[in-house]
């Protein structure tokens, strides 16, 4: 059922985004007076096909959902055109108008992202409170004197409401290679901290950037939610509601800290202190069972799961109609700029190419966000729509950006490029696109195989 839900969410998401993109081309072409022959969501054999309108445009839902296209009269050289339709062909348009038709697809994706992010702002999306739960020794966070229990309130002058706000702010600062100035509070005390992100090594920005590079994790209470039968935890007397406070005389500030202590002590007896739901402090001896992770490394497990987060750690912020639209526009601009900057930094070798995701990862994120609710799914759609819009604006032949270059050159030269040059450029574009897709698939498969 989970796999089916993931596939269903993926097809729904891709279908919506392709529909938005192709609708941009479609409506601007119609506005310019071009006759549209076919509007297809997907490629390959048609699952559903209907003809509507005075032009008898064919609307198709095809078998392969990874894309779509709008076929316009006169778009292909040598195409037969009836005398009454000669003024309605794509090729007879001025290059400036063809430029606008090509631009309309990516523009529609960015406009949709603004509306989707505005919807997220109006609905409100739950987020984890930006409280530091764990700081790794000798990490950037430790060098900046960040401490467990501190709540991050602002980053480079921008207010921080959730851990995701903080994560995206740090990622943006790292990509731009500027320091991150954090303000925190703890028990009424204000503190400032500076992370020298401008001095990070090349290829530093990648998956789990905050945990691995910055060296800190969010605060998740080390409270037991459930205990597996016959596990070391059950045999030691732990029950749901117990709060772990220490291991081997070391304090346990968060669930992440607890997990690391347990995983690093396979088959070794530990002294654990905890407080029961009734407030009684206890100390026990417990020996984690040894398991092998996907990489073959020995790790410890005691058979407990984390309790649901208390309400005071969940932050939900809703915005009004106008404020939501402003948020949508700002978020779309910020994510678009970050996407472009990340591509540039990737070429320079500063950002890890592991950040490139393919259909498998997108499908996983689609399923997870759909299960989380309407607002998370809208946020996911906005992010992928921005990626689709920006990617299509790249000056690669076969993509919209490549066509924009062709039409711009035609406007400058006063005549179109020769068919042979266009064909050769498109062949190069296909090769580049296949290389990018292959690398994205490689990253997806590597992630699946990595513990």
TrEMBL record:
Residues 108-188, 207-278 form the PDZ domain. It is a multi-pass membrane protein. Signal peptide: none annotated. InterPro entries: PDZ, PDZ_6, PDZ_sf, Pept_M50_Zn, Peptidase_M50. One of its GO terms (cellular component) is membrane. It is found in: Membrane. SMART domains: PDZ (SM00228). Keywords: Hydrolase, Membrane, Metal-binding, Metalloprotease, Protease, Transmembrane, Transmembrane helix, Zinc. Its cofactor is Zn(2+). It comes from the Bacteria. The chain crosses the membrane at residues 6-28, 99-125, 377-409, 421-442. GO terms for biological process: proteolysis. GO terms for molecular function: metal ion binding; metalloendopeptidase activity. Its main location: membrane. Its EC number is 3.4.24.-. Belongs to the peptidase M50B family. This is Zinc metalloprotease. It comes from Acidithiobacillus thiooxidans ATCC 19377. The gene is rsep.
């Amino acid at each position: 059922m989970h796999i089916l839900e993931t596939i269903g969410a993926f097809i729904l998401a891709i279908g919506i985004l392709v529909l938005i993109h192709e609708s941009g081309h479609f409506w601007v072409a119609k506005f310019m007076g071009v006759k549209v022959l076919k509007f297809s969501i997907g490629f390959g054999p048609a699952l559903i096909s209907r003809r509507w309108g005075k032009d008898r445009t064919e609307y198709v839902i095809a078998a392969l959902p990874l894309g779509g296209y709008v076929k316009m009269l006169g778009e292909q050289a040598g195409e037969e055109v009836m005398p009454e339709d000669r003024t309605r062909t794509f090729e007879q348009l001025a290059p400036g108008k063809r430029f606008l038709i090509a631009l309309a697809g990516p523009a529609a994706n960015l406009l949709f992202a603004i509306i989707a992010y505005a919807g997220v702002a109006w609905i409100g999306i739950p987020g984890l409170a930006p409280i530091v739960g764990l700081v790794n020794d000798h990490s950037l966070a430790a060098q900046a004197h960040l401490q467990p229990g501190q709540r991050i309130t602002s980053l480079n002058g921008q207010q921080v409401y959730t851990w995701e706000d903080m994560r995206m702010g740090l990622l943006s600062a790292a990509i731009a290679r500027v320091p991150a100035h954090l303000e925190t509070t703890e028990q009424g005390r204000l503190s400032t901290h500076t992370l020298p992100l401008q001095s990070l090594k090349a290829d530093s920005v990648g998956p789990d950037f905050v945990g691995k590079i910055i060296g800190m994790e969010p605060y998740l209470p080390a409270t037991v939610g459930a205990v597996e039968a016959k596990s070391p935890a059950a045999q030691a007397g732990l029950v749901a509601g117990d709060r772990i406070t220490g291991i081997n005389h070391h304090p346990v500030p968060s669930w992440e800290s607890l997990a690391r202590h347990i995983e690093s002590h396979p088959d070794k007896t530990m002294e654990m202190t905890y407080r029961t739901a009734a407030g009684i402090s206890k100390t026990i001896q417990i020996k984690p069972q040894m398991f092998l992770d996907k990489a073959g490394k020995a790790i410890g497990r005691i058979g407990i799961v984390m309790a649901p987060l208390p309400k005071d750690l969940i932050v939900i912020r809703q915005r009004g109609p106008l404020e939501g639209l402003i948020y949508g526009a700002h978020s779309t601009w910020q994510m678009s700029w970050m996407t472009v900057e990340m591509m540039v930094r990737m070429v320079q070798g500063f950002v890890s190419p592991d950040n490139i995701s393919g259909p498998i990862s997108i499908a996983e994120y689609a399923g997870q966000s759909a299960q989380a609710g309407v607002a998370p799914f809208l946020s996911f759609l906005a992010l992928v729509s921005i990626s689709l819009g920006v990617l299509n604006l790249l000056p690669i032949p076969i993509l919209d950006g490549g066509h924009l270059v062709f039409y711009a050159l035609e406007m400058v030269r006063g005549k179109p490029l020769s068919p042979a040059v266009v064909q050769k450029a498109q062949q190069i574009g296909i090769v580049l696109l296949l290389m990018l897709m292959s690398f994205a698939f490689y990253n997806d498969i590597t992630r699946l195989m990595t513990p």
